[in-house]
Amino acid sequence: MMSEKLIVTEDGSHTLYRDDLDEHYHSTHGAIQESQHVFIEAGLRKAMHRNGPVKVLEIGFGTGLNALLTLKEALDLKKKIQYVTLEPLPVSGDDYQQLNYGSLVDLEDASAYLNKMHESAWNFPFYFTDYFILNKIQSKLEDAEFQDEVFDVVFFDAFAPSKQPEVWSLGNFSKIFKALKPGGILTTYSSQGQVKRTLKEAGFEFEKIPGSKGKREMLRATKPIS
Ligand SMILES: C[S@@+](CC[C@H](N)C(=O)[O-])C[C@H]1O[C@@H](n2cnc3c(N)ncnc32)[C@H](O)[C@@H]1O
Questions:
Q1: Domain for residue 10, yes or no?
Q2: How many whole angstroms from 24 Cα to the centroid of ligand 1?
Q3: Global pTM value
Q4: 41 near 126, Cβ under 8 Å?
């Protein structure tokens, strides 16, 4: 049976370790530093200047860390964000209640927000503030359906391609490509050759950019405008 263990990463923030996959939810060099670098700075901030609400799709809700950091951006910049996140196997209450993000993320009531994110119902939008709506979908990416050209940014935060290759498939990247607006971007911590080839085959252009601590590179992929 699968079990999860709480681990302290190098920046002091927690992550979870899944023993059946022998895989962590975040970089052991720092969970918060990785999420902030890969998804907030390299991804979300590239879309915050767009007109209207920013629509984010996350692959893998997990601990909720990316969602919490995105809520902080929305409140800091007073910009509306609609956040859709997929998760087939939600983290248990015993695990998420121990996570220390609430005391490390510089946001008033961060712990309460994180708990609410986990407690809110699946498959219904939950209105947190004027600036943040969360819609958690209990599904694998493989089974999810999206409208065409709705998302500005995708946080591709699945477990590593070596552990879950089926999630990094052409079918999944093509589905995301269709669901992104032209000019929309996807970021991921992986810069594996096979991931680049699959993104390219799905139609993306990509750039290699410096990775978070402990990783030389990461990828930012863009859906071309025409
Ligand atoms: C690397 S963890 C990251 C989770 C999260 N973003 C976080 O910060 O904690 C990967 C997540 O993807 C989820 N996952 C696994 N298979 C998936 C699939 N087929 N589609 C979507 N998510 C999946 C896992 O359950 C896990 O929560």
A1: no
A2: 10
A3: 0.98
A4: no
